Amino acid sequence: MSKSALKRIAAALERMSPPAGDTPDLDTADAFVWHVEPDRLAPVMQVNRIAIDLLVGIRRSRDTLLENTLQFARGLPANNALLWGARGMGKSSLVKAVHAEVLRQGHSLKIVEVQREDLPSIARLLGILRDSDHRFLLYCDDLSFSHDDQHYKSLKAVLDGGIEGRPENVVFYATSNRRHLMPRDMIENERGSAISPSEATEEKVSLSDRFGLWLGFHPCDQDEYLSMIRGYCDTYGVVISDDDLRAEAIEWQATRGSRSGRVAWQYFIDLAGRKGIQVS
After folding, report:
1. pTM over 0.90
2. pLDDT per residue over 225-235, tens digit each?
3. Long-range contacts: 25-28, Cβ < 8 Å, 24+?
4. How would you class 215 by CB atoms within 10 Å of its CB: exposed for 0-12, middle for 13-18, buried for 19 or more?
């Protein structure tokens, strides 16, 4: 192939490839979202979160995660954390609330949200963060993997690192409905059809073992559910009697077929709207 043909091919590839993003100014915000094509860290000026004191029924998980995050913000050793369990019980809310509390206590910490589908680009993100003087909490919400999903291999760079290791200024938190990040029936199926059942899913299941901190979230009982709503009402100045709140909240729960922190918040939003109260 001639040199002119090679030059034309190279020029065509350059036109097809996305332009490199500008070097991010990490002093512009305390929260960022990682995007690819092109790679960039988009600042988030106002994070969608609630106060840590409003998270009811998860006290032990709250205290454990806060202490781990404070250690990291102070430059001390800290674990990557997996928050797993029931839907709507405040896993993602806790991560964002803990970050806000760390900032409130006067520490510097940046939170960077990474989408699951962007995990293959994680090495490039770590390359950007490694050279910064800031400390970063990488956060991936609703993390799970299917049978043929290879994204989990990219995540190992964050949890264990390769020859370079995980950057000292980065810690990784993930939320998932699955304790081992993959469906239980998939684990059983692979074990049952494998020549060596004990090794069939070791590579994938061991991924969750690489999180030093596991925090389980379980369905709330009715008293906790009502306490969540009462806490929201008191915080935002929504006036309602205990009897009316109980009757309405239980009816709302029945129509949803479930009881969780998310359902409690959704009922409260409906109640605040009916009462003409703004919720910011």
Report:
1. no
2. 999 999 999 99
3. 26/110, 26/132, 26/134
4. buried
